[in-house]
Write a structure and sequence with these properties.
alpha+beta; Polyamine Oxidase, Chain A, domain 2; FAD/NAD(P)-binding domain; 5-stranded antiparallel sheet; 2 domains; 8-stranded mixed sheet
Length: 317
Protein backbone atom coordinates (compact mmCIF):
# COMPACT_ATOMS: atom_id res chain seq x y z
CA UNK A 1 0.00 0.00 0.00
CA UNK A 2 1.30 3.44 -0.98
CA UNK A 3 0.56 6.55 1.11
CA UNK A 4 -0.45 9.76 -0.67
CA UNK A 5 -1.78 12.91 1.00
CA UNK A 6 -4.45 13.67 -1.60
CA UNK A 7 -5.56 11.53 -4.52
CA UNK A 8 -7.41 13.25 -7.34
CA UNK A 9 -9.37 11.01 -9.69
CA UNK A 10 -9.65 12.52 -13.17
CA UNK A 11 -7.17 14.65 -15.11
CA UNK A 12 -9.74 16.94 -16.72
CA UNK A 13 -9.98 20.63 -15.95
CA UNK A 14 -11.39 20.14 -12.44
CA UNK A 15 -8.64 17.73 -11.43
CA UNK A 16 -5.93 19.95 -12.88
CA UNK A 17 -7.32 23.07 -11.22
CA UNK A 18 -7.44 21.31 -7.86
CA UNK A 19 -3.94 19.86 -8.28
CA UNK A 20 -2.42 23.21 -9.25
CA UNK A 21 -3.94 25.09 -6.31
CA UNK A 22 -2.86 22.38 -3.86
CA UNK A 23 0.67 22.50 -5.29
CA UNK A 24 0.76 26.27 -4.77
CA UNK A 25 -0.10 25.61 -1.12
CA UNK A 26 2.62 22.98 -0.77
CA UNK A 27 0.20 20.06 -0.50
CA UNK A 28 1.26 16.93 -2.34
CA UNK A 29 -1.35 15.39 -4.58
CA UNK A 30 -1.36 12.72 -7.27
CA UNK A 31 -3.83 12.73 -10.14
CA UNK A 32 -5.02 9.36 -11.43
CA UNK A 33 -6.79 9.02 -14.76
CA UNK A 34 -7.86 5.95 -16.73
CA UNK A 35 -7.31 7.63 -20.10
CA UNK A 36 -4.19 7.84 -22.24
CA UNK A 37 -3.80 11.60 -22.16
CA UNK A 38 -4.48 14.53 -19.90
CA UNK A 39 -7.40 16.91 -20.35
CA UNK A 40 -10.68 14.96 -20.18
CA UNK A 41 -13.13 16.44 -22.68
CA UNK A 42 -10.57 19.03 -23.77
CA UNK A 43 -9.47 16.37 -26.19
CA UNK A 44 -7.79 16.06 -29.57
CA UNK A 45 -7.83 12.99 -31.81
CA UNK A 46 -4.92 12.51 -34.23
CA UNK A 47 -5.41 9.88 -36.93
CA UNK A 48 -2.59 7.65 -38.22
CA UNK A 49 -2.66 9.77 -41.39
CA UNK A 50 -2.05 12.94 -39.39
CA UNK A 51 -5.56 14.41 -39.44
CA UNK A 52 -6.35 16.34 -36.26
CA UNK A 53 -9.73 16.92 -34.62
CA UNK A 54 -10.73 18.64 -31.39
CA UNK A 55 -13.55 16.22 -30.74
CA UNK A 56 -14.63 17.34 -27.27
CA UNK A 57 -14.81 20.96 -26.09
CA UNK A 58 -14.65 23.27 -29.11
CA UNK A 59 -13.54 26.45 -27.36
CA UNK A 60 -13.74 28.12 -23.96
CA UNK A 61 -14.01 31.53 -22.35
CA UNK A 62 -12.30 33.07 -19.33
CA UNK A 63 -14.26 35.53 -17.19
CA UNK A 64 -13.11 34.70 -13.66
CA UNK A 65 -10.03 36.76 -12.65
CA UNK A 66 -8.02 33.77 -11.47
CA UNK A 67 -8.85 31.72 -14.55
CA UNK A 68 -7.96 34.68 -16.76
CA UNK A 69 -4.58 34.88 -15.05
CA UNK A 70 -3.90 31.21 -15.71
CA UNK A 71 -5.01 31.49 -19.32
CA UNK A 72 -2.71 34.45 -19.89
CA UNK A 73 0.23 32.52 -18.43
CA UNK A 74 -0.46 29.64 -20.80
CA UNK A 75 -0.99 32.04 -23.69
CA UNK A 76 2.50 33.44 -23.09
CA UNK A 77 3.77 29.86 -23.52
CA UNK A 78 1.97 29.68 -26.91
CA UNK A 79 -0.43 26.99 -25.71
CA UNK A 80 -3.60 29.12 -25.99
CA UNK A 81 -4.89 31.40 -28.75
CA UNK A 82 -8.12 33.14 -29.65
CA UNK A 83 -10.02 31.50 -32.50
CA UNK A 84 -11.24 34.70 -34.09
CA UNK A 85 -14.25 34.95 -36.37
CA UNK A 86 -14.24 38.71 -36.83
CA UNK A 87 -16.90 39.29 -34.19
CA UNK A 88 -14.48 40.24 -31.44
CA UNK A 89 -15.99 37.56 -29.21
CA UNK A 90 -13.68 35.38 -27.13
CA UNK A 91 -13.25 31.81 -28.41
CA UNK A 92 -10.14 30.43 -26.73
CA UNK A 93 -8.55 27.20 -27.94
CA UNK A 94 -5.46 25.25 -27.05
CA UNK A 95 -2.63 25.50 -29.55
CA UNK A 96 -1.52 23.72 -31.58
CA UNK A 97 -4.26 21.37 -30.33
CA UNK A 98 -7.06 21.71 -27.81
CA UNK A 99 -5.36 19.31 -25.42
CA UNK A 100 -2.24 21.50 -25.47
CA UNK A 101 -3.90 23.75 -22.87
CA UNK A 102 -4.49 21.07 -20.21
CA UNK A 103 -1.14 19.47 -21.04
CA UNK A 104 0.59 22.75 -20.23
CA UNK A 105 -1.33 23.07 -16.98
CA UNK A 106 -0.29 19.56 -15.99
CA UNK A 107 3.43 20.20 -16.32
CA UNK A 108 5.03 19.78 -12.91
CA UNK A 109 2.06 17.94 -11.42
CA UNK A 110 2.10 14.27 -10.48
CA UNK A 111 -0.23 12.76 -13.08
CA UNK A 112 -0.57 9.03 -13.70
CA UNK A 113 -2.49 8.01 -16.81
CA UNK A 114 -3.87 4.57 -17.58
CA UNK A 115 -4.87 3.95 -13.96
CA UNK A 116 -8.35 2.51 -13.51
CA UNK A 117 -9.87 3.12 -10.07
CA UNK A 118 -12.16 0.26 -9.12
CA UNK A 119 -13.24 1.10 -5.56
CA UNK A 120 -12.65 3.48 -2.70
CA UNK A 121 -13.63 3.00 0.93
CA UNK A 122 -13.02 4.66 4.26
CA UNK A 123 -10.87 3.08 6.96
CA UNK A 124 -10.63 4.49 10.47
CA UNK A 125 -8.75 7.65 9.54
CA UNK A 126 -7.90 7.41 5.83
CA UNK A 127 -9.13 6.26 2.42
CA UNK A 128 -8.15 3.12 0.57
CA UNK A 129 -8.16 3.65 -3.17
CA UNK A 130 -8.12 0.43 -5.19
CA UNK A 131 -6.90 0.20 -8.78
CA UNK A 132 -6.64 -2.81 -11.06
CA UNK A 133 -3.11 -3.46 -9.78
CA UNK A 134 -2.56 -1.67 -6.47
CA UNK A 135 -4.02 -0.07 -3.36
CA UNK A 136 -3.25 3.48 -2.27
CA UNK A 137 -3.85 5.07 1.11
CA UNK A 138 -4.83 8.76 1.17
CA UNK A 139 -5.89 11.39 3.67
CA UNK A 140 -8.15 13.05 1.08
CA UNK A 141 -9.83 11.79 -2.07
CA UNK A 142 -11.11 14.12 -4.78
CA UNK A 143 -13.33 12.64 -7.50
CA UNK A 144 -13.81 14.73 -10.65
CA UNK A 145 -15.34 12.27 -13.10
CA UNK A 146 -18.89 12.73 -14.49
CA UNK A 147 -21.49 12.67 -11.72
CA UNK A 148 -23.36 9.54 -12.94
CA UNK A 149 -20.15 7.50 -12.71
CA UNK A 150 -19.31 8.40 -9.11
CA UNK A 151 -21.79 6.16 -7.20
CA UNK A 152 -20.05 3.08 -8.63
CA UNK A 153 -16.91 4.15 -6.77
CA UNK A 154 -18.31 5.39 -3.46
CA UNK A 155 -21.30 3.03 -3.26
CA UNK A 156 -24.93 3.50 -4.19
CA UNK A 157 -25.80 3.72 -0.49
CA UNK A 158 -23.41 6.57 0.23
CA UNK A 159 -25.26 9.77 1.27
CA UNK A 160 -23.53 11.73 -1.51
CA UNK A 161 -24.86 9.33 -4.14
CA UNK A 162 -28.36 10.58 -3.38
CA UNK A 163 -27.21 14.18 -3.85
CA UNK A 164 -25.64 13.22 -7.18
CA UNK A 165 -28.94 11.84 -8.46
CA UNK A 166 -30.15 15.42 -8.93
CA UNK A 167 -27.48 16.07 -11.56
CA UNK A 168 -28.46 15.33 -15.15
CA UNK A 169 -25.95 14.93 -17.98
CA UNK A 170 -26.55 14.41 -21.68
CA UNK A 171 -24.57 12.52 -24.34
CA UNK A 172 -22.98 13.86 -27.50
CA UNK A 173 -21.87 11.97 -30.59
CA UNK A 174 -19.02 13.64 -32.45
CA UNK A 175 -18.16 13.08 -36.10
CA UNK A 176 -14.62 13.70 -37.35
CA UNK A 177 -14.22 13.94 -41.13
CA UNK A 178 -11.35 14.96 -43.41
CA UNK A 179 -11.98 15.93 -47.02
CA UNK A 180 -9.85 16.26 -50.12
CA UNK A 181 -9.73 19.15 -52.54
CA UNK A 182 -8.92 22.26 -50.52
CA UNK A 183 -12.41 22.74 -49.13
CA UNK A 184 -13.13 26.01 -47.35
CA UNK A 185 -16.07 27.49 -45.45
CA UNK A 186 -16.84 29.72 -42.51
CA UNK A 187 -15.33 28.90 -39.12
CA UNK A 188 -18.71 27.90 -37.83
CA UNK A 189 -21.77 27.08 -39.90
CA UNK A 190 -24.43 26.09 -37.43
CA UNK A 191 -25.13 26.39 -33.73
CA UNK A 192 -28.88 25.88 -33.56
CA UNK A 193 -30.56 23.97 -30.74
CA UNK A 194 -33.37 22.70 -32.97
CA UNK A 195 -31.07 20.88 -35.40
CA UNK A 196 -29.85 17.28 -35.26
CA UNK A 197 -26.35 18.71 -35.68
CA UNK A 198 -25.86 21.49 -33.14
CA UNK A 199 -22.25 22.27 -34.00
CA UNK A 200 -20.17 22.19 -37.17
CA UNK A 201 -16.65 23.57 -37.37
CA UNK A 202 -13.69 23.60 -39.70
CA UNK A 203 -11.12 22.37 -37.21
CA UNK A 204 -8.33 23.37 -39.60
CA UNK A 205 -9.33 27.03 -39.21
CA UNK A 206 -8.20 27.07 -35.58
CA UNK A 207 -4.83 28.71 -34.80
CA UNK A 208 -1.78 26.50 -35.11
CA UNK A 209 -3.49 23.62 -36.89
CA UNK A 210 -1.40 22.05 -39.65
CA UNK A 211 -3.75 19.39 -41.03
CA UNK A 212 -6.13 20.78 -43.68
CA UNK A 213 -9.80 20.10 -44.43
CA UNK A 214 -10.59 18.56 -41.04
CA UNK A 215 -14.17 19.03 -39.86
CA UNK A 216 -15.98 18.31 -36.59
CA UNK A 217 -19.73 17.90 -36.24
CA UNK A 218 -21.56 17.31 -32.97
CA UNK A 219 -25.07 15.97 -32.62
CA UNK A 220 -27.84 17.21 -30.36
CA UNK A 221 -28.50 15.52 -27.01
CA UNK A 222 -31.77 13.97 -28.26
CA UNK A 223 -30.21 12.66 -31.47
CA UNK A 224 -27.21 11.34 -29.56
CA UNK A 225 -29.32 9.68 -26.86
CA UNK A 226 -31.30 7.77 -29.49
CA UNK A 227 -28.14 6.45 -31.17
CA UNK A 228 -25.53 6.24 -28.41
CA UNK A 229 -25.52 2.42 -28.51
CA UNK A 230 -25.78 1.95 -32.28
CA UNK A 231 -22.75 0.74 -34.27
CA UNK A 232 -20.41 3.67 -34.94
CA UNK A 233 -20.21 2.81 -38.63
CA UNK A 234 -23.96 3.28 -39.01
CA UNK A 235 -23.94 6.48 -36.96
CA UNK A 236 -20.94 7.84 -38.84
CA UNK A 237 -22.58 7.33 -42.21
CA UNK A 238 -25.72 9.17 -41.11
CA UNK A 239 -23.78 12.07 -39.58
CA UNK A 240 -21.51 12.38 -42.62
CA UNK A 241 -24.55 12.74 -44.85
CA UNK A 242 -25.96 15.48 -42.60
CA UNK A 243 -22.61 17.29 -42.45
CA UNK A 244 -22.11 17.27 -46.21
CA UNK A 245 -25.65 18.50 -46.71
CA UNK A 246 -25.01 21.45 -44.40
CA UNK A 247 -21.64 22.55 -45.81
CA UNK A 248 -22.15 21.59 -49.45
CA UNK A 249 -19.45 18.94 -49.72
CA UNK A 250 -19.59 15.63 -51.59
CA UNK A 251 -19.43 12.55 -49.30
CA UNK A 252 -17.28 10.91 -51.99
CA UNK A 253 -14.53 13.45 -51.22
CA UNK A 254 -14.11 12.24 -47.66
CA UNK A 255 -10.68 10.81 -46.87
CA UNK A 256 -11.16 9.93 -43.23
CA UNK A 257 -14.17 9.40 -40.93
CA UNK A 258 -14.32 8.58 -37.24
CA UNK A 259 -17.00 8.78 -34.55
CA UNK A 260 -16.58 9.35 -30.83
CA UNK A 261 -19.41 8.81 -28.37
CA UNK A 262 -19.35 11.00 -25.26
CA UNK A 263 -21.85 9.36 -22.93
CA UNK A 264 -21.64 12.21 -20.41
CA UNK A 265 -20.82 15.27 -22.47
CA UNK A 266 -22.83 18.16 -21.05
CA UNK A 267 -24.65 18.93 -17.83
CA UNK A 268 -28.30 19.83 -18.38
CA UNK A 269 -29.23 20.08 -14.68
CA UNK A 270 -26.22 21.13 -12.56
CA UNK A 271 -25.87 20.67 -8.82
CA UNK A 272 -25.91 24.41 -8.18
CA UNK A 273 -22.91 24.53 -5.85
CA UNK A 274 -19.17 24.16 -6.60
CA UNK A 275 -18.54 20.89 -4.74
CA UNK A 276 -19.84 18.13 -2.54
CA UNK A 277 -18.03 16.77 0.51
CA UNK A 278 -18.77 14.07 3.04
CA UNK A 279 -19.09 14.30 6.81
CA UNK A 280 -15.44 13.34 7.33
CA UNK A 281 -14.39 16.42 5.34
CA UNK A 282 -12.01 14.24 3.36
CA UNK A 283 -14.02 13.06 0.33
CA UNK A 284 -14.67 15.76 -2.26
CA UNK A 285 -16.66 15.58 -5.49
CA UNK A 286 -16.64 18.13 -8.27
CA UNK A 287 -16.71 18.91 -11.96
CA UNK A 288 -18.45 21.14 -14.47
CA UNK A 289 -21.59 19.28 -13.49
CA UNK A 290 -21.58 21.28 -10.27
CA UNK A 291 -22.09 24.65 -11.94
CA UNK A 292 -22.49 24.74 -15.72
CA UNK A 293 -21.39 23.01 -18.97
CA UNK A 294 -18.32 25.19 -19.39
CA UNK A 295 -14.58 24.70 -19.10
CA UNK A 296 -14.36 27.61 -16.67
CA UNK A 297 -17.04 26.04 -14.45
CA UNK A 298 -14.90 22.90 -14.17
CA UNK A 299 -11.93 25.07 -13.24
CA UNK A 300 -13.89 26.90 -10.54
CA UNK A 301 -15.10 23.63 -9.03
CA UNK A 302 -11.54 22.30 -8.78
CA UNK A 303 -10.32 25.49 -7.18
CA UNK A 304 -13.14 25.40 -4.60
CA UNK A 305 -12.23 21.83 -3.67
CA UNK A 306 -8.56 22.74 -3.27
CA UNK A 307 -9.44 25.66 -1.00
CA UNK A 308 -11.64 23.39 1.10
CA UNK A 309 -8.70 21.02 1.59
CA UNK A 310 -6.27 23.86 2.32
CA UNK A 311 -8.62 25.43 4.85
CA UNK A 312 -8.88 22.15 6.77
CA UNK A 313 -5.52 23.04 8.30
CA UNK A 314 -6.61 26.53 9.32
CA UNK A 315 -7.84 27.12 12.90
CA UNK A 316 -11.42 28.22 13.38
CA UNK A 317 -11.81 31.97 13.97
Amino acid sequence: MTDIHTIIIGSGMTGLSCGLRLAEAGIKATIFDKGRSIGGRMATRVSPEGFEFDHGAQYFKAKDDDFQRVVEEVRCADAVSNWGDGSGDQHLVGTPRMNSFPAKLGEGLSVRQGINITQIYRDEDSWSVHTDDDVFDAENVVITIPAPQIPALIGMGHPLSERLSAVKMTPCITLMAAFSGGQSADRRDIGLSDEDLVWIANNSSKPGRTASDCWVAQASPLWSEARIDLPVKETGKEMLSMLCSKIGFDPLDVKYVEVHRWKYANVSEPLGEPLLKDLTNSLFLGGDWCLAPRVEAAWLSGRAIALAIINKGCPEV
